[in-house]
Amino acid sequence: MTVDNMTDLYPVPFPDDAPIANLEKISLYKLLNDDEDEAQRLFKVCKETGFFYLDMMDHPKGKQMWEDACTACRAGQDVLPRVPMQEKKLYKAPAGVRVLDQGYQTGAVKDNGRPRDSEMFMVPQTGIFGKGPTSFQLPSWLAQHEGRFKAAMKTGNTVANIVLSVLETELQLPQGAFTSLHRLADSSGDFLRVLRYPGSDTPEKVDPLRFPAHKDAVSVAILFTWLGGLQIVEPQAAAAGVVTVPEDSWRWVKPLPGCAVVNLGDAMEVFTNGVLKSGLHRVIKAPGQQRVHDKYSVLIVARPEDQTPMKAFKSPMIPEDSPEQARAQVFTSIQWGNNKIKALQDVIDKIQSERRGKSDKLERSW
Predict the structure, then answer these.
(1) Which of 81, 67, 31 is nearest to 224 (CA)?
(2) 197, CA 20 to 30 Å: which among 204, 282, 327, 349?
(3) Segment among 3-12, 23-32, 207-216, 304-313 with least mean pLDDT
(4) CB 329 within 8 A of CB 357
(5) Distance of CA 164 to the CA centre of its chain
(6) Is-contact 221 232, C-beta < 8 A?
(7) Helix 146-170 / helix 36-48 crossing angle, nearest 10 deg
(8) Is 362 left (phi over 0), alpha (psi -120 to 50) or beta?
């Protein structure tokens, strides 16, 4: 398979009148060559919004990840519209304390058996690369693409650790403080996710039940997407710490060819006692004429190793715990991640309850 021609992933231009977020573009090449100015730019962004573009085309490692992500996208295009819903739903998340790292998920399904808003599948990194015996197997409709997913997760882990290495240096932490918690073969809940948002020609009001705003229960998320849909909060609203975000405070993240959209997750806020920021975001239908086209995204995330205590590191750059924080229970990474995901589902359930059960229920995967 070739990724030389990706024009079909950009069927129509991003609309000129959509209000966009002004994200910094960080050079992977400069980070890998120890450019201190670029490292400080990255650190500044991560202390403010936690969102930035990462130029993947200025270094061979970035180019390889871009190609691997495009290949994973092609795999999603091959299977998601074609495989029957009943068969896809047989790929389930395992029972127990989980972090949405495995299985197929969708929300409401139309009478014709197709998803209304979105569908996705997750490939667990531990299942693919984990040490020791494992019973994990991809279902047959995904197994044919396992090599593609494996390549994307491997390069994704490399790029995530490049970012983490810069941040641990800027925070005056020992070398390996973050990167030792995000090794490829460790049990961590890392995953690759391929998402499909079916096109729609019907304008609809944004529904918080169908498109809930959230932060990610991860360390680093690396998103490859080719149509609009991702939105973040404008800096003024984010700085104010608003709970309910006015619609006019949301800004589109315009996809840039050759760039990934990277964001820090809540784990980095915990590890730095709020020095680094995890940004609030949501994904809705694409804007303008892009809306009628199917939108695909590939998401690769790095999470701390499962048994990592979720507490702040010690550093002159990181504030000490308050007395209340010092008394609080410390969860392991896997427990903490599961709690965060359940809390998001509880928000959805609350909205649903307030509507007296009139809305479609999002299927749980845990």
Answers:
(1) 67
(2) 349
(3) 207-216
(4) no
(5) 16
(6) no
(7) 100
(8) beta
Residue carrying structure tokens 């977020």: 21
Using DSSP bridges, classify how beta strands 25-27 and 51-55 pair: parallel, antiparallel or unpaired.
Answer: parallel
Separation of first and last alpha carbons in the chain: 35
The pLDDT assigned to 130 comes to 84
The strand ranges marked E within the chain are 25-27, 51-55, 103-106, 119-124, 191-197, 220-225, 230-233, 250-252, 259-264, 281-283, 295-302
User: In which order are the strands placed within the sheet that holds 295-302?
Assistant: 25-27, 51-55, 259-264, 220-225, 295-302, 191-197, 119-124, 103-106
Instruction: Calculate helix-pair angle for 146-170, 60-79, nearest 10 degrees.
Output: 140
> Residue 103, Cα to own-chain centre: how many angstroms?
16
List the one residue out of 24, 49, 30, 98 whose CA is nearest residue 264: 49
Arithmetic mean of pLDDT over the chain: 89
Residue corresponding to tokens 């074609």: 82
Look at the pTM and tell me if it is higher than 0.70. yes
% of the chain with per-residue pLDDT over 90: 73
> Which residue type does 61 have?
K
Q: How many residues are given for the chain? A: 366
Encoding tokens for residue 127?
């299942």
In order of 49, 256, 281, the CA distances from 274 in angstroms are 12, 29, 18
Exposed/middle/buried for 96, CB within 10 Å: 0-12, 13-18, 19+? exposed
Q: Provide φ and ψ at 292, rounded to 5°.
A: -80, -10
What value does the mean pLDDT take over residues 16-39?
97
Please name the residue ranges forming H helices in 80-186.
85-88, 125-129, 140-143, 146-170
Question: Is residue 60 classed as helix, strand or coil in its secondary structure?
Answer: helix
pLDDT at residue 97 tops 70: no
Looking at residue 51, its pLDDT comes to 97
Q: What is the pLDDT of residue 352?
A: 66
Taking the C-alpha atoms of residue 105 and residue 99, their distance in angstroms, rounded to an integer, is: 13
